[in-house]
Amino acid sequence: MTPAARTQAAIELLDAIIAAAQEAGAAADTLIARYFATRRYAGSKDRRAVRELVYAAIRQCGERPPSGRAAMLLLTERDPEIAARFDGSPHGPAAIQQGEPVAVSGVVPAWIGRELEQSGLPAASWPALVARAPLDVRIRSDVDAGEALSTFPDAQPIAGLDRGWRLPAGTDVAPLAGVAEVQDAGSQAVSLAAEARPGMTVVDLCAGAGGKTLALADAMSGTGRIIACDVDRARLSRLPPRADKAKLTIVETRLLNPGKEAEALGDLAGAADVVFVDAPCSGTGTWRRNPEARWRLTPERLKRLTATQAHVLELAAPLVRPGGSIVYVVCSLLDAEGTLQAEQFLSGHPGWKASTPALPMGAPHGAGVRLSPVHDESDGFFVARLVAPC
Predict the structure, then answer these.
(1) For residue 246, what pLDDT band results from cuts at 50, 70 and 90?
(2) What is the pTM assigned to this prediction?
(3) Which phi and psi angles does 102 have, rounded to 5°?
(4) Catalytic residue among 61, 206, 281, 331
(5) What pLDDT score was predicted for residue 213?
């Protein structure tokens, strides 16, 4: 592909990504993979170059742009080389016309900016929220990290995480299959808030594909019981093969029926040492990996998410044994989903109290701890440990 053709491909992909964001369609990564699956002529260098153009444009547009061309034209204002590709050549973008729409530069949509400021994150901190993320992995506890990473000379240990390592972005981690999981440092850190130990009974109430389930099970050293639950059959079905590959035999999965979750959890009432609630959220802490997610979030969607979070906390409470705990986690930086949810739960459940988790990163924030890309070089999270009365 010529440079002009790569730029046109990026414009076409941006159009698809913008439409998907407006219509709750597929994520950018998925759309990019689909695009190149039908264009076998594009080599690895072409795919990499187009992908970099797409994400550079997404990161420059806080508000959803009117079109992929408008987003790419914003890049031309800063990069004359990209501007020169708008030459009308075959397979390239048409020449730039005076007065045509150009996307507005920014970091976040205006309404989200107000939410961030109210949550203690000033505008100066926002660029870090959409910067490119590193590649972190968690080495299995029964594996020698030095041996596993012997062919990765650039791997660096992550401070405070015994099994956490950071690799250069784009590293091929296929050789680590079965001995390591790709997992952000922040995700590894918040899993520690559960203080999972051998012999415990742990319920992972919103397990999804099980990234944190595997971290919890690994900390339990193969003894005890961990029940991974979710309402999403497709995501939950990916967990058993991952657990088998990691040799974690204590993981059970349980598919929940939306609206009837309490019935399916009845046998676990009062049995859990820890209920881990990695609640559905806005994902504002993961924009480094999914920057187009800023265009998907609306006030209405945020309201639905906070209602779901409160519902899941109510489901968790009856499962906890006296003196046990709920570990509430969201990959969000918004107080509406974080500390305010924890405080609302505590106000409605007399006798419960917050116990600030001792984590290797993050800072106390309201009823828990907040991690952020700004200060911790990790994804953004809020985590609270809510302890049941004895």
Answers:
(1) confident
(2) 0.92
(3) -125, 135
(4) 331
(5) 94
Please check whether residue 190 is in contact with residue 371, taking contact to mean a CB–CB distance below 8 angstroms: yes
Is 197 buried (19+), middle (13-18) or exposed (0-12) by CB count in 10 A? middle
Residue 332 pLDDT exceeds 90: yes
Give how far Cα 331 sits from Cα of 32, 82, 226, Å: 24, 35, 22
pLDDT at 222 over 90: no
In this predicted structure, what is the pLDDT of residue 197? 95
Burial 130-143 (b: 16+ CB within 10 A, else e): beebbebbbbbbeb
What pLDDT does 169 receive?
84
Phi first, then psi, for residue 203 (nearest 5°) are -110, 120
Q: What is the pLDDT of residue 260?
A: 93
DSSP 38: T
253: its two tokens: 């999965």
* Residue 101 dihedral angles phi and psi, to the nearest 5°: -60, 135
State the Cα–Cα distance between residues 156 and 267, nearest whole angstrom.
44
Tell me, what amino acid is at 104? V
331 catalytically annotated: yes
CB 165 within 8 A of CB 215: no
Residue 137, SS3 per DSSP: strand
As a whole number, the mean pLDDT across the chain is: 95
CA dihedral of 182, 138, 119, 357, whole degrees rounded to 10: 150
Q: What is the pLDDT of residue 170?
A: 84
Angle (CA) 20 25 31, round 5°: 70
297 alpha-carbon distance from chain centroid: 14
> In the beta sheet, which residues pair with residue 226?
202, 251
pLDDT at 229 over 90: yes
Nearest by Cα to 120 from 333, 383, 369: 333
